[in-house]
């Protein structure tokens, strides 16, 4: 009379089975530190630059930021490359490269993390979020 079909129905109900974050490898994210005392976000620091606290916890950035400063470097490289300071949404600043024409990166441009570690230089690589609609001429 009783059929053991309940277990199938329970699985179909969709209980979350993944304990780990299934999205992307951890290498494609920038880890930063946040001061547990004052909440300041920082990158590659040992002490909080604001309150000099050493009680920092590591957090993972969403990978979205804004270009604060951008320069084109011609030195020691066959092709000009872009070096930018990116202020991340979490509030810390990281140095990296923005893909695209080196002269096409401007302060205020919104970027998203593309690669956390460049295989050559080990620096983060970003891409522009907004397509450059502005006229180039
Ligand atoms: Zn602090």
Just give the CATH class of the largest domain. Mainly Beta
- As a whole number of angstroms, the C-alpha radius of gyration is 21 Å
Query: Strand order, biggest sheet?
Result: 4-5-6-8-7
H and E order: HEEEEEEEE
Brief summary of the model shown:
By secondary structure, the protein is mainly beta.
Task: Describe how the helices and strands are arranged.
Elements: H1 6-12, E1 31-35, E2 41-42, E3 56-60, E4 64-73, E5 81-88, E6 93-98, E7 110-115, E8 125-128
Parallel strand pairs: 6-8
Antiparallel strand pairs: 1-2, 1-3, 4-5, 4-7, 5-6, 7-8
Bound molecules: zinc ion.
Structure description:
Residues 1-20 are annotated as: Disordered. This is Zinc ribbon domain-containing protein. Residues 26-56 form the ChsH2 rubredoxin-like zinc ribbon domain. InterPro entries: ChsH2_Znr, NA-bd_OB-fold, Thioester_dehydratase-like. Pfam families: zf-ChsH2. With 137 residues, the protein is mostly beta strands. It folds into two domains: 1-60, no CATH class; 64-128, OB fold (Dihydrolipoamide Acetyltransferase, E2P), CATH 2.40.50. It contains one helix and eight strands, in the order H-E-E-E-E-E-E-E-E. It has one helix at 6-12; strands at residues 31-35, 41-42, 56-60, 64-73, 81-88, 93-98, 110-115, 125-128. The strands form two sheets. It has a five-stranded mixed β-barrel with strand order 4-5-6-8-7. It has a three-stranded antiparallel sheet with strand order 2-1-3, with no helix packed on it. A hairpin with a 5-residue loop joins strand 1 (31-35) and strand 2 (41-42). The protein is elongated and about 45 Å long. It starts with 5 loop residues before the first helix and ends in a 9-residue tail after the last strand. Residues 7-15 have low confidence and may be disordered. It binds zinc ion.
């Amino acid at each position: 009379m009783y059929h053991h079909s309940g277990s199938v129905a329970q699985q179909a109900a969709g209980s979350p089975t993944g304990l780990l974050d299934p999205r992307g490898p951890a290498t494609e994210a920038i880890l930063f530190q946040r001061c547990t005392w004052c909440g300041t976000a920082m990158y590659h620091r040992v002490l909080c630059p604001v309150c000099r606290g050493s009680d920092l916890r590591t957090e993972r950035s969403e990978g979205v930021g804004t270009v604060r400063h951008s320069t084109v470097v011609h030195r020691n490289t066959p092709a000009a490359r872009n070096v930018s300071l990116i202020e991340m949404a979490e509030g810390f600043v990281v140095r990296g490269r923005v893909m695209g024409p080196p002269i096409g990166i401007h302060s205020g441009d919104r970027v998203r993390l593309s690669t956390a570690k460049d295989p050559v230089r080990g620096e983060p690589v970003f891409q522009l979020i907004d397509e450059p609609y502005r006229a180039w001429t």
